[in-house]
Specification:
Length: about 300
């Protein structure tokens, strides 16, 4: 099939390459990419035949919102607009309603696979009308490994499932992080963490692709000395926790993992200072003096 790809970053560029290797014709537009085939969204729309398929693979939030509203007037009845970024599912539901008024189908495709997707394939969670998703299936099945694509529900469902997927990812990563820190602190044993990460990939109930990636990281830097322990979040974990609260669904592991990421960004926790001060006040427990601030 023929489609247009908007965004040629780490995901969009590799997805374009995988699609082309799979026999699809892909026209591209990205503001800063010299290898693009179109110089504007208008030109990209003109390079496609109806029913046009335009796939947005750009950051969620304002970039997606602006591109959606720029692209929609360029499309016509029967065309399909796909959002493969990590948009909030409620935004995708709204965009689907706006697109429907013009006769354009909107499909939200949650995509997982990261920088390894070009070689291994991408897990695709598609939300949208049956007819639109069916048209897109040749591209979905090319991008995904066997069994790695599913139409999970109506518009918004794809990004909802991807949101929960990323929330679970937070919890898994935090569990590995805490476990390996505990083993790293077990001084009497001098454990080889790379060896254990490799060992657990064979027959263990905690084996996973994340564990394979952790083994790679330990092989490259056994003590992780080249990495600061600052963990950012791109929003999906927060959204997952918000939805859990709204639905009264307990999600303590995912919530704790999200808050652990917040804690990682603090040079020194003020809450810890409060705890130390209280222990000193009620029990006379010793406190450590803060280091004097360096002169500017």
């Amino acid at each position: 099939m023929k489609l247009g790809m908007v965004g040629l970053g780490r995901m969009g560029g590799n997805m374009t390459e995988r699609l082309r290797k799979g026999g699809h014709e892909v026209e591209t537009y990205a503001r800063t990419a010299p290898e693009r085939t179109a110089d504007s969204l208008v030109e990209l729309a003109m390079m496609l035949e109806q029913p046009r398929v335009v796939w947005l693979m750009i950051p969620a939030g304002d970039p997606t919102e602006m591109t959606f509203h720029t692209m929609l007037p360029l499309l016509e009845d029967g065309d399909i607009l796909v959002d493969g970024g990590n948009s909030h599912f409620r935004d995708s539901m709204r965009r689907a309603e706006e697109a429907e008024k013009k006769g354009v189908s909107f499909v939200d495709a949650g995509v997982s696979g990261g920088i390894w997707g070009l070689r291994e394939g991408y897990c695709i969670m598609a939300g949208g009308d049956d007819s639109a998703v069916q048209i897109l299936e040749p591209a979905f099945t090319t991008l995904a490994p066997e069994g790695g694509y599913a139409h999970v529900g109506p518009p918004g469902a794809g990004h909802f499932v991807k949101m929960v997927h990323n929330g679970i990812e937070y919890g898994l990563m935090q569990a590995y992080a805490e476990g390996f820190e505990l083993m790293q602190a077990a001084a009497p044993f001098e454990l080889d963490l790379a060896q254990i990460a490799l060992l657990w990939q064979h027959g263990s109930v905690v084996r996973s692709w994340l564990l394979e990636l952790l083994h790679r990281a330990f092989e490259a830097d056994p003590g992780l000395e080249q990495i600061r322990g600052v963990v950012q979040d791109s929003g999906e974990g927060r959204w997952t926790v918000h939805e859990a609260i709204d639905s009264a669904v307990p999600a303590p592991a995912i919530s704790a993992a999200l808050f652990a990421r917040f804690a990682s960004r603090q040079d020194e926790s003020f809450a810890a200072k409060v705890n130390a001060a209280l222990r000193n006040q009620f029990g006379g427990h010793a406190v450590e003096a803060a280091e004097a601030k360096r002169a500017e």
